[in-house]
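Morning. Coffee machine broken again, so started the prediction first thing and wrote up yesterday's gels while waiting. Chain of 276 residues, entered below exactly as on the submission form.
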Amino acid sequence: MNVIDRGSGPPLILIPGIQGRWEYLRPAIDALSASFRVLTFSLRDEPSWRGGGARDVSFDEYADQVGAVLDEKALSRAVICGVSFGGLIALRFAARHPARTDALILVSTPSAGFRLRRRHEIYVRLPWILGPLFLIESPARLRPELRTAIPDARARRRFTRVALQTLVRAPLSISRMAARGRLLSNLDVSADCERIAAPTLIVTGERGLDYVVPVDTSSAYTQRIRGAQSAVIERTGHLGSITRPDVFASVVRAFVDAHAGRERVPAVQDTPDAAA
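Came back before lunch.
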């Protein structure tokens, strides 16, 4: 398996977003690895994953990939952290495997109230025709957040340059992103939320700066998951884990430290089909 293994300390699984590639989380990986042993990977339908390239992967299959990473590294449990779309994978894994989840961290993650915008619904149905338009409009959609998170123009240009280099080295697949987008239709997280036993942290940016997943949608998890706490990374929106990675890592570290060794909430039996 192509598993990225960085740093030392408590193990933390970091699950990438709808892009499917771990490379886009590199700033977060670098920051988290100062306190954790970070394990990350590309999603299983990406060619870089063992046997990758499959289409129409389900959330259960993505969750199985997280378990496979733990098995590969001979780890019984870890902190499970998912960013955006990856948060839904983290949620499904934690619901099915409470005994393997030390803590659950959902970062700017869609919940049941999330709906794709009308034009994005068209993009996921006709990815090869309209998908390029989605990529073209992305910089304009994210520009206000970047200017707030990285006010220094030189640093912002450096961030943009690195992002473009990542795009060249880890090209995105419009069709695979569209397939993941279709999983968001009629999203129902109720059953998974009810099964969460691990301490849970909901991380968002500021209201009005997340132009991808509205903050109120992500914050709804604090009501859906028993005992869930929340944290806001100031001056960020959807990209806080990579635009302000040191702040993000410190938030995660503080939460994990505060809950280390605490007795967890009783949960359903930890079996592969517990969420069935």
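Residues 17 and 85 are 5 Å apart (CA to CA). Going to sketch it on the whiteboard this afternoon.
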